[in-house]
Amino acid sequence: MKIYLAGPDVFLPHAMDIGRRKQVMCREFGFEGLFPLDNDDDVAGAPAKIFRANRDLMRQADIGLFNCTPFRGPSTDAGTAFEIGFLSAAGKPLYGYRGSEADYRANVVATFGPVSAGDRPRDRLGLAVENFGLADNLMLTEAIRDSGGTMIALEAREEPALAAFEAFRACLERLRSDRTQAHVAERTR
Amino acid sequence: MKIYLAGPDVFLPHAMDIGRRKQVMCREFGFEGLFPLDNDDDVAGAPAKIFRANRDLMRQADIGLFNCTPFRGPSTDAGTAFEIGFLSAAGKPLYGYRGSEADYRANVVATFGPVSAGDRPRDRLGLAVENFGLADNLMLTEAIRDSGGTMIALEAREEPALAAFEAFRACLERLRSDRTQAHVAERTR
């Protein structure tokens, strides 16, 4: 099983090392991890090539595993959100993980200050703040849920927090358990 | 031709009015605009229903038209980024528009302060900042380009700036021109 390892990890110092470590963890659980190629020598510096290389990896993948730790604001990295959409349209199982347990509303407050009270809060600019107790914009969280996957949040204790290694491992455990159950269900059908 | 009108417009005060105005503009150009149903009475408050309703609209659409004006940070709204990915995987033509002409690097500086000098800048947390002179994360801009579409940036002069009406209109003009040329090319082939 090939898993596409999406996330803002590609922007971390030593991104390739972090990618390799996540690939090793995937192998521990019996999966093959495909890490985005933004930093690969063959494509680095050429946006169109990076896009096509990552799109090809997504097309090869059986499953999408997304690092949804907030990046430069209260939400998932825009490139990662794009990839959730891409693999959602492809009908593949989607799993998310994050190094923070706060919900979207709390992340907006932490980033931009207080929001109005009530069921349908607005930020200081008057823009509505989704208030469903979800980790992020509903299109992301519901795409994951609808695919049969799940989002796992665990406060990161290990640096770099953005890599969310603890939540990543917990998500691989869940994935293996879900796959095993699906396999058993198929065999006993 | 049905166009899916993605964007953070759904979070604006009077979102439904803004959606209707964009739909009227679509009709002027000979298109049918499909506006996301986040605020529709039938689904409001139910994230799973909103997700499915918007996904159904995307599946009906022939073209994706995305409001990529930065939202709560230097990037496109995460839900909109998701939808770019969704329609990219579906192989549909994608067009973007934005009410700001600044590139991604400038948006990061405006939001989080100075970045390091050089070809491969990093922000104050040491995270790499894409520095390709693109409007946003390359996965978004290159997906649009690869689809045959384009991204149009025009500084918004009309309120609400987030709706980016001027860039929206310019994008509809481009879309009509591209469609007309494609139609002529097909007829004279």
Task: Please characterize this protein's 3D structure.
The structure is a homodimer of 189-residue chains. Chain A has helices at 15-28, 47-60, 78-89, 104-112, 138-146, 165-187, and strands at residues 2-6, 32-34, 63-67, 94-98, 151-153. Chain A is an alpha/beta fold. Chain A is globular. Chain A starts with a strand and ends with a helix. Chains A and B meet through helix 2, helix 3, helix 4 and helix 5 of A and helix 2, helix 3, helix 4 and helix 5 of B.
Write the layout of secondary structure elements.
Two copies of one chain form a homodimer.
Chain A: E1 2-6, H1 15-28, E2 32-34, H2 47-60, E3 63-67, H3 78-89, E4 94-98, H4 104-112, H5 138-146, E5 151-153, H6 165-187
Parallel strand pairs in A: 1-2, 1-3, 3-4, 4-5
Task: Kindly summarize this structure in a few lines.
Two copies of one chain form a homodimer. Chain A is of the alpha/beta class and about 190 residues long. Chain A has helices at about 15-30, 45-60, 80-90, 105-110, 140-145, 165-185, and strands at about 1-5, 30-35, 65, 95-100, 150-155.
> Number of DSSP strands of chain A?
5
Tell me what portion of residues of chain A adopts beta-strand conformation. Answer: 5-15%
Q: What is the end-to-end distance of chain A? A: 22 Å
Of all chain pairs, the largest interface belongs to: A-B, 56 and 56 residues
Could you describe the largest sheet of chain A, including whether it forms a barrel? 5 strands, parallel
